[in-house]
Known about the structure:
Layout: H1 3-46, H2 53-73, H3 78-92
Amino acid sequence: MNDDTTSSSDRTERLARRRAGAKMGWYIHATVYVLVNLFLVILASSRGQNWAMYPLLGWGLGLLIHGAVVFFIAPGGNFYDRLLERERKALRGGDRG
Length: 97
């Protein structure tokens, strides 16, 4: 096996591990979000209040942004891959747009 193949394989392995770690981080974040907010909704409802929607919405926005970065924008995400391929074509002269 030559150095280019090994180097490419190493880069692919590092990227795969990084992507898997990022996705696992999001799944953990989502699980904690559900559990904590479920507790807060139960607590607020038991006292006849509805304040639990504020942390639910605020944290939900953070979770949404986290998910967008992990699944669409980060290297290896579909959106990122499409942009990268478009730039490669443009740099090769295959796409003048």
